[in-house]
Specification:
The chain is mainly α. It is 77% helix and 0% strand. Helix 2 runs antiparallel to helix 3, helix 3 crosses helix 5 and helix 4 runs antiparallel to helix 5.
């Protein structure tokens, strides 16, 4: 359990402290992945690899949403971390669905949250390492 919490802690640190980097990496990752999978799907041999890549992208997105749920769950008055994370994920999904109903702005907010989550998962290598921003030399 402690190892899983450390993985999620690394991702939530990237979301809260390095949100601009997470958003930028998430945007670039999604744009290039969509183009790559579309080009791969044109060839008959690479269609299965493109499908596997799409499923890997959806799993990454799910992991990002779970990390947002973990972040919300840490602020809930629940003693069990697993239950708090589950409640946080449920709250996050509800918030995303309600926010998406707001015309124009809601979709952009949801897109920003999703791209930030994917970018945070990517820059922490799925939570294995914590993200350290580059420092300018003195």
């Amino acid at each position: 359990t402690r190892g899983r919490r450390k993985l999620l802690d690394n991702i939530t640190d990237a979301v809260t402290q390095h949100y601009v980097v997470s958003f930028t990496v998430g945007t670039l990752l999604i744009l290039t992945a969509l183009a790559l999978f579309a080009f791969m799907a044109f060839t008959l041999i690479l269609i299965p690899i493109a499908i596997i890549g799409i499923f890997a992208g959806l799993a990454t997105l799910g992991y990002g949403i779970i990390s947002w749920g973990y972040l919300i769950g840490t602020h809930l008055p629940v003693a069990r971390p697993g239950l708090a994370t589950g409640l946080g994920v449920a709250a996050m999904v509800i918030v995303l669905q309600v926010t998406a109903e707001v015309p124009l702005v809601g979709g952009l907010v949801v897109l920003g949250i999703v791209l930030t989550a994917v970018g945070a998962v990517a820059i922490t290598y799925y939570g294995v390492t914590s993200f350290q921003a580059a420092a300018l030399p003195d």
